[in-house]
């Protein structure tokens, strides 16, 4: 087994200690289980059998607003995002 050091934000450390206490396992075991989980969720890119590609776009029909209104609509959308 390899011994290592890590730095954790205070809140994450406290939550991991809480989990360890509630489950009556060591803090190190919580960390090991977390790493085991994340390595299963994110498999090695080399091991992926099918390379990822973006989904095929779907035709949603023609845009109904006239071209002259596109700029105005984009500006309205940008203003909504800042509210």
Describe this structure in words.
By secondary structure, this protein is mainly α. It has a domain at 1-47: Arc Repressor Mutant (Orthogonal Bundle). Helix content is 49%, strand content 0%. The protein has three helices and no strands. The longest helix has 15 residues, at 27-41. The termini are far apart. The mean pLDDT is 88.
Can you tag this structure with a few keywords?
single chain; 83 residues; mainly alpha; Arc Repressor Mutant
Question: What is the CATH architecture descriptor of the domain at 1-47?
Answer: Orthogonal Bundle
Order of helix and strand elements from N to C terminus: HHH
Ranges where pLDDT stays below 50 over 5 or more residues in a row are none
Alpha-carbon Rg, integer: 24 Å
CATH topology term of the domain at 1-47: Arc Repressor Mutant
Write the layout of secondary structure elements.
Elements: H1 10-23, H2 27-41, H3 70-81
Helix pairs in contact: 1-2
Q: How would you sum up this structure in a few lines?
A:
It contains 3 helices and no strands. The protein is mainly α and 83 residues long.
């Amino acid at each position: 087994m390899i011994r290592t050091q890590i730095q954790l934000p205070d809140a994450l450390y406290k939550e991991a200690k809480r989990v360890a206490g509630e489950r009556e396992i060591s803090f190190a075991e919580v960390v090991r289980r977390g790493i085991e989980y994340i390595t299963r969720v994110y498999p090695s890119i080399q091991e992926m059998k099918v390379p990822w590609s973006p989904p095929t776009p779907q035709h949603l029909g023609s845009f109904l607003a006239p071209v002259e209104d596109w700029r105005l609509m984009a500006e309205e959308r940008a203003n909504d995002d800042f509210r």
